[in-house]
Design brief:
By secondary structure, the protein is an alpha/beta fold. The protein is about 40% helix and about 15% strand. It has a five-stranded parallel β-sheet with strand order 5-2-1-9-17, sandwiched between helices. A five-stranded antiparallel β-sheet has the order 11-15-14-12-13. Strand 20 and strand 21 form a beta hairpin. Helix 3 packs parallel to helix 6. The longest helix has 27 residues. The two termini are about 40 Å apart.
């Protein structure tokens, strides 16, 4: 039933063959085609700018007051591309291979290879837009390393790469807005997909300022709404990030792919107490130069500066000498959890490890001193020069850490611990990025397609921009070429009226509960269940309990949630309630998917499936597939499988030693 539409032929020729033979829409017809884009982060803004440039009539929706507020802005560390500027052995194939291997062989080969192919074009596009990538002294673009690779392929703009890339896409988007090709709808939230004759033909959106429901037609609908990490309540996501658009699509027939695949990022500021509403990510780029360690003695309460070198355990360097501190995120996260669980954690909570820059400061200081012909520089001068170099490369990250913790990371090691970050699962899409609903597409983190069970660092920005700038302009045209005779359907059509009534009924139901508990009460309870029983480690007993607990929490939510204010006004609690209602259903599905997947892969450690020594044990014989779940009604889901075929990148046991 699942047709991934992967083109025939050799892997390295599939995308070129597709582009050479896909259907086209001529410019005059494009002006008559309307496209709805929900979400204006990197994937949405780049798609809207590209499709507007091509001549389509684009409507772009975001729940923020500006596309510049998208969570893409928080991706700090960099963006991958196979340019091989360092002449260190990189290539399109190596980027493809690292990505498939890093995802623990649970990604679709054809999509990943296409991603690697277009990666270089992304850098050229962004440079042309004026993105201020870091450069070497001679003017060449600079690169650094990220986890899961042995080459330097990550382009960056200090510690604010996502912000600069988003501003580039935003400027391209605003150009199209000024030309009249794109209409922006800020402070609007999509609450329903409208389907007519089995095709996505529009959306119902709520104006978040007035509370008014609006109907919008489109020949196609593109969801670029990011990930669902906030199902855990505490995550590195912006607090507004949610799954509502993708979940409404799921209820309209779009299959949800690999929902239990979430990424645990190893480099986050640890939880400090129950008062927290989100976690702060310290960019993975810090692992490029920082060294991670814990004391060799359990429950060691000494200050890090009082622990001599021979009493420190640089456990990643010890366990994985080939990659050291740059192992993939799932490996680094699991190793940190293991050390803390074994009693070697640091800080007051003992749920943290050290990320230390002392060696990097000394190394950079000596290099800088040598540049200046100071071959016998004093230690204090070397330290001063080293701090200046580190500040230039990572200064805003260090400043952020200092403001949050009150500690100076130039003087004392940072304390970090794994936290929920990115979601590899998402709406199932085929090679053309279309969901199982005809005419409904999902781009960027909203789809499942490119990362398998674990995303390599600096690949999120790469995928979002690849989908928006270089994939969807071709694949959408291939679909719309058969739709050029379809006139704009009036929003008085019964399908629009029915969809709006369904949204209105749901809002009325929420406002009519008038219970005693806040929305956050339910969100926090759900988050604790998910983290404890469907987080970094999970087992059959815990997952079975979690499903029962979440179903009970759903019933409690719909009988006892309290939403202050009125429906037809600016009401953030009502917004939040709708999103948490969707998280409650998604959380159940995530646990069902995790229960079904009786293997350890990526960051998803099934305690029943491990090697001697505690390493994850993958089961290719039984689980080499994408799980695509079809919504069949409340608490009812049917599993469909897309078998993964590896023609080039043959699955092996991952080894970073």
């Amino acid at each position: 039933m699942l047709n991934s539409k992967i083109p025939a032929g050799p892997l390295e020729q599939k995308w070129e063959e597709y582009k050479g033979h896909c259907k086209l829409v001529n410019p005059a017809n494009k002006r008559n085609m309307e496209v709805i884009i929900v979400g204006t982060g990197l994937a949405g803004a780049s798609a809207a700018a590209s499709l507007g440039e091509l001549g389509y009539k684009v409507k772009a929706f975001c729940f923020q007051d500006s596309a510049r507020r998208a969570h893409s802005i928080a991706a700090q560390g960099g963006i991958n591309a196979a340019k091989n500027y360092q002449n260190d052995g990189d290539s399109v194939y190596r980027l493809f291979y690292d990505t498939v291997k890093g995802g623990d062989y649970r990604a679709r080969e054809a999509n990943v290879h296409r991603l690697a192919e277009v990666s270089g074009n992304i850098i050229d596009q962004c440079v042309a837009q004026g993105v201020p990538f870091a450069r070497e002294y001679g003017g060449m673009l600079s690169n650094r390393s990220f986890g899961g690779t042995q080459v330097q392929r990550t382009f960056y703009a200090a510690g604010q790469t996502g912000q600069q890339l988003l501003l580039g896409a935003y400027s391209a988007l605003q150009r199209q807005v000024a030309l009249g090709n794109v209409t922006m709808y800020a402070r609007h939230e999509m609450l329903e997909i409208v389907t007519i004759d089995g095709k996505a033909r529009g959306i119902i959106a709520r104006d978040l300022v007035t509370g008014k429901l609006e109907r919008h037609f489109g020949h196609a609908v593109l969801l670029c709404t990011g990930g669902y990490g906030n199902v855990f309540y505490l995550s590195t996501n912006a607090m507004g990030s949610n799954v509502t658009a993708a979940w409404k699509a799921t209820k309209k027939g779009a299959f949800f792919g690999n929902p239990c695949y979430t990424q645990i990022h190893p480099t986050c500021i640890p939880v400090s107490g129950d008062h927290q509403s989100k976690l702060t990510l310290m960019s993975e780029s810090l692992r490029n130069d920082g060294r991670i360690w814990v004391p060799k003695k359990q429950n060691d309460n000494r200050k890090p500066g009082d622990i001599p070198e021979d009493e420190r355990d640089y456990y990643l360097e010890r366990r994985y000498p080939a990659f050291g501190n740059l192992v993939p995120r799932d490996v680094a996260s699991r190793a940190a959890k293991e050390r803390c669980d074994a009693g070697y954690g640091v800080g007051s909570s003992k749920q943290a490890v050290y990320l230390d820059y002392a060696s990097a400061i000394e190394r950079y200081g000596k290099i800088e001193a040598n540049k200046r012909q100071m071959h016998n520089a004093a230690p204090d001068l070397i330290t001063k020069l080293g701090k200046e170099v580190v500040a230039e490369k990572y200064g805003n990250l260090f400043d952020m850490y200092a403001k949050i913790t009150g500690e100076n990371p130039y003087e004392v090691p940072m304390r970090i611990y794994p936290a929920v970050h990115y979601t590899m699962g998402g709406l199932w899409v085929d090679y053309e990025l279309m969901t199982t609903v005809t005419g409904l597409y999902a781009l960027g983190e909203a789809n499942f397609s490119d990362h398998g069970a674990n995303r390599l660092g600096a690949s999120a920005l790469m995928q979002g921009l690849a989908d928006g700038y270089f994939v969807i302009p071709y694949t959408l045209g291939n679909y719309l070429a058969d739709d050029i005779r379809t006139k704009a359907i009036p929003t008085t059509h019964p399908a629009f009226e029915e969809a709006e009534k369904h949204v209105q009924d749901t809002l009325n139901k929420l406002m009519g509960i008038k219970g005693t508990k806040s929305v956050d009460y339910f969100h926090k309870k759900l988050g604790k269940i998910m983290w404890d029983k469907c987080g970094m480690a999970r087992n059959e007993k815990g997952l079975t309990e979690a499903i029962e607990e979440i179903i009970a929490l759903q019933k409690e939510f719909w009988s006892d949630v309290r939403i202050p204010g009125e429906q037809n006004e600016f009401n953030p609690e009502l917004e939040k309630a709708g999103r948490v209602a969707d998280f409650l259903e998604l959380g159940e599905l995530m646990c069902r998917d995790a229960l079904n997947r009786r293997e350890s892969c990526g960051g998803h450690f099934r305690e029943e499936s491990q090697e001697d020594g505690g390493e994850a044990k993958r089961d290719d014989a039984n689980f080499s597939y994408v799980s695509a779940w079809e919504y069949k009604g409340p608490n009812q889901y049917e599993l469909h499988k897309e078998e993964l075929v590896f023609e080039v990148c043959k699955p092996t046991q991952r080894n970073y030693k």
